[in-house]
Amino acid sequence: MCGIVGYIGNRDAYPILIKGLHRLEYRGYDSAGIALINKENELSVYKTKGRVQDLEEFSKSKDITGNIGIAHTRWATHGEPNNVNAHPHYSQSESLALIHNGIIENYAVIKKELLQKGYTFQSSTDTEVLVQLIEYIKSTNQCDLFTAVQLALNQVVGAYAIAVLERGNPNCIIAARKSSPLVIGIGDDEFFLGSDASPIVEYTNKVIYLDDEEIAIIERGKTEPKIVTISNVQKTHKIKELEMNLSQLEKGGFSHFMLKEIFEQPETLKNCMSGRVNQEATNVILSGIIDHKEKFLEAKRILIIACGTSWHAGLIGEYLIEEFCRIPVEVEYSSEFRYRNPVINSTDIVIAISQSGETADTLAAVELARKAGAFVYGVCNVVGSSIPRNTDSGSYTHCGPEIGVASTKAFTAQVMVLTMIALTLANQKGTIKQEEYEGILKELLLIPNKIEKILALNEQIKQLASIFTYAHNFIYLGRGFSYPVALEGALKLKEISYIHAEGYPAAEMKHGPIALIDNEMPIVAIASDNAIHEKIVSNIQEIKARKGRVIAIISEGDTEIKSMADHCIEIPKTKECLSPLLSCIPLQLLAYHIAVTKNRDVDMPRNLAKSVTVE
Ligand code: M6R
25, 82, 477, 524: least surrounded by Cβ within 10 Å? Predict the structure, then answer.
């Protein structure tokens, strides 16, 4: 949830850390802080409520020299976002400084014991408890920092990615992880640390991803970090090469990452299909499925687990898999699934969908499913993240780093992967006719060009957005494949514009929500061609009869809805099962422009962070 960056080498650490924090800011932006050791071996901590920019302002008059340091950008869990709760946290004697991502669940018990031993606490965070515990262990055992960290981590319950600096020790950073990602970048005579690779990629493409319960001793003058588990087993890691490049982390002329990512979708979807759907549109192969064909052919049921936008993609996956593979599918919120003692069988396939691959609830749900003997398949974007490393097989969405907090290109890539899963499996099972199979593949290859056409409507959608900024509520309606799109459109609007919005299956309106409709209420109807088109036409009529203001997403040439709706956005025709890939695009743009018009911070909406690595 928070962002961690570290540096040790021969350059000035401060600019590297600040730049790294800017790249990580999407992970949390309640407060920011930095710890540096200068040439005199003094350890200084500077931290402030607010954004990285505020930290830069705050540190202007301070000593920011030194070529070793750690820095943090926070999304508050324990304790409100303020200067004191910001990381790094000092230990009692100010000889240690620590940054932390995660939650120490038994912090209250440890804090009580430390209070009894005379320790005092400045903040209300669990993190301060950890740094105090390390100092206490170090002084009572008269041991080195590494041993103290190791002993302390054996006492804590919970999730952590940490980095620790020690006054008088300018040659070493101690870092450790459990259930929160941590990456070490290996340069020439220098090391970098990041909660993901984004602050590292500018300097090196050689990285090591720490595994759970591993501690790294990152020492000046060494060529590789030393890695040991908390139970003292030495580990050797293969150095990996980053696939990411710097331009993917920059806005590239767009005013926001979200807009850039919306416009990237034709390209990201081509990448997603590349090497999987052949150009003749006669076959799609997902190796993650083919390599475990027997498991998939035997499957009696598929469970899909995910959160937020990924859960919406999962609902589309349900429709696709049931339609083409005739296997029953259930879609669950990971957070509910993990705590409700679900029935899981060894003949179940569990598909875990996650952009980040780090969402705590989805990760826990994956563990539960594996323990119960199910075969678990990951659909993730971030290569090497925890979910792909903890699943039996899977497919990456290959859409590049998604920085905007509101998920856009990751959603369409997830839907694309789920479409390919459904088609691969249906073809293997023989539940789809060759003609239909090839027809869908042919249409799938046309999707990127059709999205280009929708993106060309950006100005029209911007104008439309300016009409609706007055609204405090929105309703999004859809049926069949368009229902999950309605949910996703409403979520996009909520999270970046702070306008209340609800997605509904259109026919459910008359069971209650229709009472909300008056001449002020905007209703976004996702009404592109589908088998029950006339049903959504009558739903729109019901709304118009109550004077609701309808914005309809329609297929090109639909004169019937055009004559009824107040505003229409026409999108290219496609097959119904692929329609979500097109109909979500105008909704992303609508939410974006409404939020911009309302002067919202689109890439860093209030209270949110990109990946939710805590419960
Ligand atoms: O990384 P994940 O896909 O597991 O994240 C799940 C949700 O936190 C995420 O989709 C969230 O809902 C987005 N902010 C939606 O735009």
Answer: 82
Q: What is the pLDDT of residue 180?
A: 86
Cα three-residue angle 87-90-91, rounded to 5 degrees:
140
The full set of domains in the chain, from first to last, is 3-248 (3.60.20.10), 250-454 (3.40.50.10490), 458-597 (3.40.50.10490)
Contact between 200 and 190 under an 8 Å Cβ cutoff? The reply is no
Pocket test for ligand 1, best of 1, 312, 356, 379 (most atoms within 8 A of CB): 356
- Given a cut of 80, whether residue 613 has pLDDT beyond it is no
How much is the mean pLDDT over the chain? 93
Chain segment 555-607, per-residue pLDDT in tens: 998 988 999 999 999 999 999 999 999 999 999 999 999 999 999 999 888 88
**Alpha helices by DSSP H, 355-481:** 360-371, 386-389, 409-429, 434-455, 458-467
Measure the CA–CA gap between 201 and 195, rounded to whole angstroms: 12
CA of 612 to the centre of ligand 1 (A): 8
Binding site membership of 407 for ligand 1 (Cβ less than 6 Å): yes
Residue 573 phi/psi, 5° resolution?
-70, 150
Q: How far is the CA of 610 from the centre of ligand 1 (A)?
A: 7
Q: Give the integer Cα–Cα distance in Å for 351 and 363.
A: 12
Ligand 1 pocket check for 334: Cβ under 6 Å = no
What pTM was computed for the model?
0.85
Contact 163, 193 (CB under 8 A): yes
